From TrEMBL:
<dbReference type="InterPro" id="IPR034032">
    <property type="entry name" value="Zn_MMP-like_bac"/>
</dbReference>
<feature type="domain" description="EcxA zinc-binding">
    <location>
        <begin position="490"/>
        <end position="807"/>
    </location>
</feature>
<dbReference type="InterPro" id="IPR033413">
    <property type="entry name" value="DUF5117"/>
</dbReference>
<dbReference type="Pfam" id="PF17148">
    <property type="entry name" value="DUF5117"/>
</dbReference>
<feature type="domain" description="DUF5117">
    <location>
        <begin position="115"/>
        <end position="298"/>
    </location>
</feature>
<keyword id="KW-0732">Signal</keyword>
<dbReference type="Pfam" id="PF16313">
    <property type="entry name" value="DUF4953"/>
</dbReference>
<dbReference type="InterPro" id="IPR032534">
    <property type="entry name" value="EcxA_zinc-bd"/>
</dbReference>
<dbReference type="InterPro" id="IPR024079">
    <property type="entry name" value="MetalloPept_cat_dom_sf"/>
</dbReference>
<protein>
    <submittedName>
        <fullName>Matrixin</fullName>
    </submittedName>
</protein>
<feature type="compositionally biased region" description="Low complexity">
    <location>
        <begin position="37"/>
        <end position="46"/>
    </location>
</feature>
<feature type="signal peptide">
    <location>
        <begin position="1"/>
        <end position="20"/>
    </location>
</feature>
<feature type="region of interest" description="Disordered">
    <location>
        <begin position="31"/>
        <end position="52"/>
    </location>
</feature>
Length: 883
């Protein structure tokens, strides 16, 4: 009903407003005249009351009047609100998951002011990027070159002594505040991404309007039409031609308190804002601030005090009943960290009653929410929103995808790409693209935005969790009719959920990832619960750790850490310990002086090495564990090889298809991928230390990984990944790895198992890193400051691992692919016009010549091996002839 009428009244209102003003000017004769002549009484000016008589009033920070017939909204702006800063915050409340418009995604945050310009009100976004010291005369020129961003201007409909009434449909309905529709580069092929199409005002409308003393929230449903969609956008899109996106605009009063922004520091990982000090001549003119809650001691003199206002969390009533207490307990675990900062009961966890009459979307409540999406872009997220001027966190939500949280198996599409699609991503196929850092951000866009905390943890975690379930199911001895295994799986699930909540809640407290934290314990300590329950299994819960599963099942300790680690406790102290202003800098310096303690080590997403060629410190990595990753990985690879032969008996159940067996197989392949991936990063790795000069005399910012350890890593890859028999345990499973038919799903590709692709993906994921132009160049550069494992040594060890063992025998299909790809890579390095440095090219050329002479002396026992070697010779000849 409201569809078509929305903008009509707005147009009338604008016309009326303009008309009324003109008319009132004309009708206001000079005072002297009025006394003399009996002119007819001027029609009385419309009042606010007249203008809102058919509207419902929502009184609050900004009082809104919504017309009960048309739905149109007018805002009453008080005169004393002009020129004041307010916070704007948008939330997506449900829309295409393909565009990250999932429920409760915290989106744009900025400060704005409302100013009056002649007969209009202007809504202006503020720029918070700069700081000027008021004592410095240059501050008189503050922000002179900063452009005004006026989002919206509208004629005042009517004014009274206290304020102005203005129509705001043009501000709220549409994308003036938050551009919902993403801007895609024009170079993207049509249909490659889901496209909303054009905004359709006639089908857009208001949802709930709420106004409270400190915030005003307006829910809107924005309609988009795309008459010719080339991309269906997924199963959650009912019809790609017509999509309505639910959004919430929140206008929030800037808190009036004595909260002081706390400075950021490179040694500890908080989300925050970068602020440039344009009145400083320091080499680091940064006034960067961190995001944190406003915790104030009830009793400032006490060493430990309750806060005046704790951080209150509600466990939403959508949470599976049996998990509610676990979630509550996990959240309360953060209180240990706050105690070190001087606060007792800083975090209060409550369970939302099933009959609660409040809306979890109400921004005054921090809620741990659950959803079950068709196409989740994350497993759980923990975003918060802040006052951009000070970093004060004003609210937060955690959303857990039910399937991840409940431990449902993740789809196993990790290794199903063909060799050709794999090749397109190998750095030797396109070295220029490989060294372009924008490749990393386009692969991991979630980490580019410092205000939005997107976290892929839960997906990784559930894949790992499933591997743990498989380990218990296949290997644990159970004389108790399955009871022992059930208990073990329940404990594993509890630890998994604990970890998920601890981690996401850490984000809402302001912490970003610490991908270095799983380095804390040695492999012989990780299953010792005397250590892990007291200190933690990791320095921080903000890492993406490997599942901690022991190959010796009798020694199994904790699968996940169940408490805030030493880094978390220290980081919370940095962010939250209260100081008097004059003591703050010294106090922070004292806390930071501990950053050299091994348990407090830190490195975030920008430092982690998950993508080939990205970053430099192998200890900052996802899906790893312990301070000796080569030893830890060997144990896991052995575990996988022990599990493989037992998988079929355990996971092919009567009266079910082989879909579960197939999914279990890929979960174990994923374990292998994570182990060899983490180990490969040590080759050419450089350890980073961010301590400041004078903190630790022995510390240097850059220390190459020792040649011994690099060689150990290489030996592990040669043995468990490149060797001819590395995958011999898998063969018996191949005839059974069948997907379940559903409709016509095999139209997209044939259903037969493709082990050579799976194995090649795994092998190439490591070579893609070792032979990456950035890695090879670093191996050479670091030889100038301590690295003694040269590119020629690296290539020579790869040749040994990839060629020696079957030189005088039959070369199996895995090895044919591996040898061919290695030769292609070396040839590409030799002939690469860009990307590879001279020493790398020399090493690759020498490698090709060496392989050529090895092949000349090799004997081929069968036709296939002969054909393979003929092809290698051809590739080498071709590469050498270009030279
Ligand atoms: Zn995270």
């Amino acid at each position: 009903m409201r569809k078509t009428s929305l903008f009509v009244p707005l147009a009338i209102l604008m016309a009326t407003g303009a008309f009324a003003q003109k008319k009132s000017k004309a009708a206001a004769p000079p005072v002297a005249d009025t006394a003399k002549k009996a002119v007819p009484a001027a029609p009385s000016k419309p009042t606010v009351k007249d203008k809102v008589k058919s509207s419902k009033k929502h009184e609050g920070l900004f009082t809104l009047y919504q017309d009960t017939v048309t739905g149109s909204v007018q805002m009453y702006v008080k005169k004393d609100q002009l020129g004041k800063e307010f916070i704007y915050q948008s939330f997506s409340m449900g829309g295409p998951t393909a565009l990250f418009l999932n429920q409760n995604m915290i989106r744009a945050t900025f400060l704005f002011k409302i100013e009056k310009s002649f007969d209009k009100l202007e809504f202006k976004q503020q720029n918070t990027n700069f700081h000027y010291d008021g004592e410095n005369a240059i501050s008189k020129a503050a922000n002179v070159d900063v452009s005004d961003a006026v989002m919206f201007a509208e004629k005042v409909a009517v004014e009274d002594s206290l304020g102005y009434l203005v129509a705001v449909d043009g501000l709220l309905l549409g994308d003036k505040l938050d551009p919902v529709k993403p801007v895609f580069p024009p170079t993207l092929p049509p249909g490659s991404v889901f496209n909303l199409g054009g905004y359709n005002p006639s089908k857009s409308k208001y949802g709930t309007v709420r106004s409270f003393p400190n915030n005003t929230d307006v829910l809107v449903e924005l309609a988009y039409d795309n008459p010719m969609p080339l991309n269906g956008g997924g199963k959650d899109i009912t019809d790609a031609r017509y999509v309505r996106v639910k959004m919430q605009h929140s206008f929030i009063e800037v808190p009036n308190n004595d909260f002081r922004a706390r400075r950021d520091d490179p040694r500890v990982g908080y989300f925050g804002s970068e602020v440039d000090d344009l009145s400083s001549i320091s080499p680091t003119p940064y006034k960067d601030i961190i995001n944190r809650w406003n915790l104030v001691k009830k009793d400032p003199a006490a060493a430990i005090s309750e806060p005046v206002e704790p951080i209150v969390w509600w466990v939403e009533n959508t949470t599976p009943v049996e998990l509610r207490e676990i979630v509550k307990e996990a959240g309360e675990k953060w209180n240990e960290a706050f105690e070190a900062a001087g606060f007792k009961n800083a975090v209060v966890m409550k369970i939302m009653p099933d009959n609660a009459d409040w809306d979890p979307a109400d921004i005054r409540y921090n809620v741990i929410r659950w959803v079950s999406s068709a196409n989740p872009q994350y497993g759980a997220i923990g975003p918060s929103f802040t006052n951009p001027r000070t970093g004060q966190i004003l609210g937060a939500d955690i959303t857990v995808e039910w399937r991840s949280g409940a431990g449902a198996p993740v789809q196993d599409d990790l290794f199903n790409g063909g060799l050709s699609s794999l090749a397109a991503n190998l750095p030797w196929e396109n070295p220029a693209a490989a060294i372009d850092p924008s490749q990393y951000t386009s692969k991991y866009p979630a980490f580019g935005n410092r205000h939005i905390t997107t976290c892929a943890l839960a997906n990784e975690l559930s894949m790992q969790y499933q591997a743990g379930v498989a380990a218990i199911a296949t290997l644990d001895d159970d004389g108790s009719n399955g009871e022992k295994k059930t208990t073990a799986v329940r404990e594993l699930h509890k630890q998994f959920l604990y970890y998920l909540i601890l981690h996401e809640m850490g984000h809402t407290l302001g912490l970003n990832h610490n991908m270095k934290a799983s380095q804390m314990l040695r492999p012989d300590q990780v299953h010792d619960q005397n250590i892990t329950r007291k200190l933690g299994l990791q320095g921080s819960v903000m890492d993406y750790p490997s599942l901690n599963v022991s190959s010796d099942r009798s020694k199994q300790g904790d699968y996940y850490t169940t408490k805030a680690g030493p880094y978390d406790i220290w980081a919370i102290e940095y962010g939250y310990r209260p100081f008097r202003p004059e003591e703050e800098e010294e106090g922070l310096r004292k806390i930071l002086s501990r950053s050299t303690e091994p348990n407090l080590t830190f490195g975030n997403d920008a430092d982690d090495m998950r993508a080939p060629g990205k970053a430099i410190d192998p200890r900052v990595m996802v899906n790893d564990m312990s301070s000796d990753m080569v030893a830890y990985a060997e144990d896991r690879l052995k575990l996988v090889n022990t599990m493989m032969p037992k998988l079929k008996a355990r996971f092919s159940q009567p009266n079910q298809s082989y879909a579960e067996l197939r999914s279990r197989y890929y979960q174990l392949m994923n374990q292998r991928a994570q182990m060899v991936g983490a180990v490969s990063r040590y080759i050419g790795g450089v350890n980073v230390d961010r301590s400041y000069a004078g903190q630790n005399a022995a510390a240097k910012p850059f220390t190459p990984v020792s040649a011994d350890y690099q060689k150990k890593a290489m030996a592990l890859l040669n043995k468990y990944l490149y060797a001819p028999n590395a995958f011999s345990t898998d063969a018996a499973l191949f005839p059974y790895l069948q997907m379940q038919r559903r409709g016509f799903n095999f139209f997209n590709g044939t259903e037969d198992v493709k082990p050579q692709t799976t194995v090649a993906s795994l092998q190439m994921s490591t070579l893609a890193h070792i032979l990456h132009p950035v890695t090879m160049s670093r191996i050479n550069n670091s030889s100038l400051y301590g690295n003694s494992y040269s590119v020629a040594d690296v290539m020579s060890d790869l040749v040994k691992g990839i060629f020696n063992e079957d030189l005088n025998g039959s070369v199996n299909l895995y090895r044919q692919n591996l040898q061919t790809e290695f030769v292609k890579a070396s040839a590409a390095i030799v002939n690469s016009p860009v990307g590879y440095d001279n020493a790398s090219k020399a090493a690759a050329l020498s490698t090709l010549k060496k392989i050529k002479s090895m092949l000349a002396a090799a004997s081929s026992p069968n036709e296939q091996t002969r054909a393979h070697r003929t092809n290698l010779n051809f590739l080498i000849e071709k590469a050498l002839s270009v030279k």
